[in-house]
Amino acid sequence: MDMQDLKVFEAVARHGGMKRAAEELATVQSNVTARIRALEEDLEVRLFDRHSRGVALTAAGERLLPYAHRAAVLMTDARRAARDDGTPSGSLVVGSLETTAALHLSRPLAAYVAAHREVDLVLRTGTTAELIERVLKGELEGSFVCGPVAHPELEVQTVYHEELVLVAPPGLGAIEALSARREVRIVVLRAGCSYRQRLEEILARRGIVGLRTLEFGTIEAIVGSVAAGLGVTLMPRGIVAPAEAEGRVELHRLPPEDGLVETLFIRRRDGHASSALTALIATAAGPAQAVAAE
After folding, report:
1. Are 156 and 264 in contact (CB under 8 A)?
2. pTM across the whole model
3. 23-38: string of b/e by CB count within 10 Å (b at 16+)?
4. What are the tens digits of pLDDT across the range 43-56?
5. More exposed terminus of the chain, fewer Cβ within 10 Å: N or C?
């Protein structure tokens, strides 16, 4: 078994078929099939069940797959470490919550790009759950996510403090008024959003359950929908303060245990922290960055 065997195995597992894996790997299907058979013979286990629509992992294949992912991440890190001479350069792919990108990262990223012109920076947005998964898989070198995060494979650093507020259409009066409504709708991002989960917990503690959910893909759509009276949401104060100033929404302060959260930067504990990544974290978490609660 070697790295190429594991690369082929991972591609077949991800695509669920030899043909699509061969296309990705720029080879012919017979080569992929031969590699998988040789790997199965070497390990003395069957890794895939064959069926008319392709293949599916066996229990042994499921056990092997995490090691294939880890091996791929290790090889990427090894190349990155060998080429890293201490000067930020090359590709840097990191993740962020959309709210963090909008509220905190515009100026730091502009400063970073100006200072490190040899870095090709890519920023991917997603929910906390999605971003954690992508960091663990090695698809992102690191990511800004909502805390708390406790995972043995992740190194965690606090970079910002946020004040979350309940955002409602004008005229709600108090959060408790929601309990008198026959139907309460929350306007949120897709499942895996940490603010969505926190909002559901905040309302449940106040006896507000049986929520109806409206999902939208952007912050602007969520705030606009709340302003139109479609429901309530939970957002960092800094994001929705302009809408409050315009009279479009009203903001309800929450007790510290509900409203104060940390934005964290996470990366794999066993991964190589490249010079490009180290410089980005230092820029993003610098003393000049404002605290959202202020």
Report:
1. yes
2. 0.78
3. eebeeeeeebbebbee
4. 999 999 998 888 99
5. C
